[in-house]
Structures are given as structure tokens and as C-alpha cells.
Amino acid sequence: MGQEGKGPVIRANIKVRGIVQGVGFRPFIHRQVRGYGLKGWVRNTSDGAEIEVEGPEGLIDRFAEELWTKKPLLALIEDVRIDKTDDLRGYDRFEIAGSRDLGRRNTLISPDVAVCEDCLRELRDPSDRRYRYPYINCTNCGPRFTIIKDVPYDRAKTTMAEFPMCGTCEGEYTNIENRRYHAEPTCCPDCGPGLIYCRADGRPANGDPVKLAAEDLKAHRIVAVKGLGGYHLACLFDDDETPARLRERKRRDEKPFAVMCRDLDAARKICEVDETEERLLLSGARPIVLLKKKDRGSLMNVSENGRVGVMLPYTPVHHLLFDEGLESLIMTSANLSDLPIIYKDDEALRELADIADGFLMGEREIHTRCDDSLVYGFDGKAYPVRRSRGYVPYPLRLQGADNMILACGAEQKASFCISREGSVFPSQHIGDLKNLQTFDNYSRQIAHFENMFSVRPQKLVCDLHPDYFSTSYAEERSKNEGIPLIKVQHHWAHMASCMADNGLEGDVIGVIWDGTGLGTDGTIWGGEFLAGGYEGFSRLGTIGGIKLPGGDRAVEQLWRTGISMLLDCGVDPSGLYDEEKISMVRTMIGSGLNCPASSGMGRLFDGAASVIGIRQDASYEGQGAVLLEAAAAECCEAYPFKVTKKDGLYIFDKKEMLRAICDESMRGVEKGLMAARFMNTMVRMAEEMCVLIREDTGLDRVCLSGGSFQNIYMLERLVKDLGQRGFQVFHHSRVPANDEGIAFGQLAIAAKGNKDDVPCGTA
User: Fold this and answer.
1) Domains of the chain and any CATH numbers
2) What's this model's pTM, rounded to 2 decimal places?
């Protein structure tokens, strides 16, 4: 036993906080304790897990150390507290005790995890009692977040409560040697939920549900498939007619679809996959990974740009479908235009009746809807675009976030964050707060998170924009509940989000590029160069105002912005645009009616896409920018430009660049070259701005944030070039650069910078 096994016999009460429920933690403790010969018990609590053991003090110390080093794969330990006493209870064995609700909820909850290899082997083994059982799972895999109704995490507080375990499953559940020991969703064909296949009219079909669904898919029909966090719409894409029919029925004209491939080999047939992307595809989170097409002109019925969002199967149902001879499927979220993903069976049958030809439905209820996560592989790790299934509700650590704060986020790509005792919990993807259904989901998810994590906000944070639903929500709660409210400028929150994502303190330069955000001067910002930190910021540079004829209409009709920019440069656009459109834009600009100015980088991309001739109308947000990046050829040249200074603000003078683009477009220069030169110009302009700001401030750390940095062409070049100019460059890796990351930045400012409970703290 060694020296460490000696010493007085004591009793130790050990409290463990973190993700320690639903991940095999109690079975792990039971096995470890047995190895040390300790006696006592372990139980779940609403704080996490509590262990009480008696034995030699040296052995107990070793046991406690191994909680950190030998924990289960899916566990996350945040804190271990040990109280020792010589007051013994005389335990004669070690057991798993009943859970205890302490009246507060400080435990953490695991995200949903893709089905593990052990379960897959059983799923495909004809001799196994769970052969082809679609709800196979164990302590290492399966649903967590989407089935939990309350904590502590016990079966009675999940959507599995209505399925009592049979005797055999109960035996596995209570057997310390079994992989399903205290796995709460444990079930089998005799006691668990099953599958049903319904036709479009809602009537159940006779036969094996999976085989019926596969037959319909092979016959080029559209099938609604129930996943972990909601329904997908699935179909083949090896012809043009089936995806076109799905687009027509779903009213999704051109926005890319996600694809689910049977395995890595199937993914590699259509896309390039590097080591980082392979690791992400195979991870337990199973996100959609945006991969480069092998042939840029291929799969246009799936994605019109140079990348395809690809994921691998993550539920037993997915694997069973692909085992029927399928290789790759379109697998897109089942929702109506701008509405949240559908996750209830009756809603699916009602709302998708005109879209799906069949429904592969499961009897296990989804409690919390949760979309698929979406990431790039960049710089050796995930570069998130949408942080949702597989990652949420995994917490982020943020030093200083000790109080309970609710950050309400923005309007587009809405999300929220809550904090407690140094942990920040970003929500899953909610969607754009454009309608009451999405706002209702937003409000209900806030209530669910506050209940799960026992958070009662002491401070609220929101965006400056008065018309955002999220701002209205924060204002109403502040008024009704008397909670102090802080309003944070949009681009400052972006900068703080990137700082917090990278654990930075002090002041930085923020290159913050997106489409729209209300500035502190009441104008629309979007292509900004900031300096500061969590305490405050200064706006030191901008791309300058762009007049948007028709306001929001210009976001959809890109030619409005293209004509406006050329007229502003003194260029005659008649060689590129219809005279009637030019006349209309000229009149609107002249009258100033509904023609706001914006410094949004997204709007500059819109106008450039129009002038180059890549896109004149957008059917989804950012389409012009997406296609401009996709069109880019190999080119290191840039257009001429100037940086001027007025009233202490550096301004990007676009005129020379736009004149050059217009001239090349009229001469028929290859669009890919113009697209590359335009983005190269943006990179060089950003370098020059950062150098000027460094000379003024002495700052040499640069944070890149905002939705425009979903442009990987621009991101990778700017990171490299700024590094060569002696800057330390930071980008996102834990929360998205787009508006979904805004809430994290808002919370960081409220927690680390603004210490005063003022009603409206703006920079």
C-alpha cells in the first residue's frame, strides 16, 4: 500500500462541481473507491456530485487527486472541495445513494454526444439484444441537454421518465461492471421508445420504419427525420430535380443545404478534408463542418459557393439509415422560413405536411430544441459559425464573472449568456428575432437556463439598438423586476467577445467588421477600428459611410448599393446598370428620403459584388459576400486606396478602388480576379489602419471579430499579414465571430469592466 496508505482513519466529505452527471461519474467513483477499499457513498446533488468516504487519510488524498486525472472522458471538473473529520460513521460498504436537491442548481449539464463505437458495434450485431435498436446509448454517448427537464440529472427529470426500465435494463443500470451503469437514458426494445414511419397524411405505415424511410429516400422522395434537437428534411442530391423540389416546398431558393455523409470516405468523395476538419467531423460534438468542394463548380444544387457543410451521422437512427445502402443525403433543418427548427411530432406532421413525403418519427420526446452546430476548421481548431448541439450547455470560464448576469445578445443570430461563479453559459442558436415564434423560443430558453443553473440575474446587459426584440426584453425585465440594465454598443461587444474568447486583459485594437450595428453617435456602424478593453473604447477608424437607397431594401437589392457607391465616387454607372435604376437611386440620394448612411463592411461587400457583376439581388443574408469569396481567383494584387484622417478618425477612402473596379468590370476583366483584388484591398487597408493606430496608441494586440470574418479568405490573409507586421493577432475559437457571439462580449463588459449598476452604461 505504501507510505501514502498509512495515517489515521478519517471521514472525508468531497463535493465535486462541473459536468459530473450523465457522463458515468458515479460509476467511475464506485470503481475507484473499490480499488482503494474505501467505504461510504456517492450521490448526485443539484450542486454536482457529493462523495463521502472513510479510510486511511493517505488513500483518501490519492483518491481525491485522481478525480482530476482519471475522470470519465465526458466529465468536466471545475471544483473539488474536501472536508475531513475524525468523527467516523462506521460505513461497512460503498453505495450509490439517492440524489439530493439542495434547493439550488450549481451542477453542469453535458451536451448531447454522438453515439459511441461500443454502442455502434452492438447496434450492428445480430446476436445483441439491442440489434438495430434506434435508441441505444450508454454513459459515454447519447442525449443529455435536449432531454433534461430539470436537475439533478435523473431519469425521472428527463423525457425518458415515461419509459420504465425492464428487469434486464435495470440489471445493467445497477451493475458496476456494465457500461450502462447509472446511464439515465438506458433502454432496449422491450422497455424503451420506438420508431414510427408516417406517410405525408400522418397515417402510420406498416413495416420497418427505417427501411421504409430509406426506400422513400432512394425513390427521390423527401423524408422528415427526427434527430436529437429537432427534425431534419432529408433527400438525395444526385439529381437536380429532388433538391429543387425541396427548395420549392421549403421556399429556400438558393441558401446552401447541409449534407450528411455515411463516413469520412463518402465526405472525401465530394470535399477536401484536412486533419483539423477530420478531427471535428469525428468529434463527439459532430458539428457541420464547412469543407471546400473538390470541384468548385460541383454540387450547385446543394451549395452555390465553394464550400459544403458536411456532418457525419450522430444518432443510431442516422447510422441505420445509411446502413440501408445510402451514402450521402441533404440533411437540412426542418423549419419554415425564419422560424425555429421544428421539434414536436404533432407540429412536424402539421407544418411539414406540404414539404415531406414521409416522417421518420421517434417516441422519445425532445424537451429542448437545438440546431446543429456549424464550424470551419481554422488555425488547427474549430472556428465556430453556430455554437449549438454538441457544445451547449458546455460552460466557458471567464475570470471576473462571479455575479449572476444575463446578457441578452443582439437581433440577428440571437443568443444569450448567463453567468454564475466564474462560469458563462452561452445558449444554443436561437435564430433571428424577426417574429413572435422565435422571440417566444428565446424567452422560454432564457427561463429554462435560469432554472437549470439556478441563476437569478443581478444585472442585465443588452444592445444599444432600441428596436431589437432582445433590447425590449431586457428593458421590460429591468423595469418589472428592478434589475439594473447596462446597454453596450454593438461593436464594442464584438471586440470584448474576442478578448474574452482568448482570455485577454488590458487594451487591444479591435478590427470589427459586420453588416449593421447602432453606433454611439446614432449612425449605423459596421466597418470599425476600435481601441480599448472591457472598461471602455474609442472609435479610431472606419470605412466611411455608404448611402443605402431604400434602407433595408438595399440589403436585398444589391444594385442599389452598387449604384450609390459609384455615384458617390463621381463615376457614371450607365455602362453597368439600367438607366431606370440609376435614375431612381440618384433621385433617392438627392432627396435624402429613406437613404441612411452605413459604414457596414457587409454593405461594402454587397456593393462590390454588384459592381463586379457577381450578384445583383440577395435571397439570403450575406449572399453577395459569400459568392464574392467563392469567386476569388489566386491573386495577390490589390486596388489603390487612401486612408485619410478627419476629426481624429481614420477613414478608408474608397473612391480610387471603386473607380478601378468599375473600369475593370466594364472592360470584362475576369470576376474572380476582381473579387480577389477587392478582398486583398480590404486586408491591406486593415494593415495600414492598424499600423497608424499602433503609432498613436502603442497597442500591438489586434482582435478580429464581426460577421465579415466568416470570410476565411480575408481572415487567413489578415492574420498572416498583421503577424508579419509585428502584431499579435487574435480570433475566435469558442464563440462565433458573428452576432451570436455578441452576448458573450456584453457579459464580459458587465462582469469585468462596468462595475457600476447604472441604468444605461454606454461608451
Assistant:
1) 3-96 (3.30.70.100), 195-362 (3.90.870.40), 395-502+741-753 (3.30.420.360), 510-732 (3.30.420.40)
2) 0.92
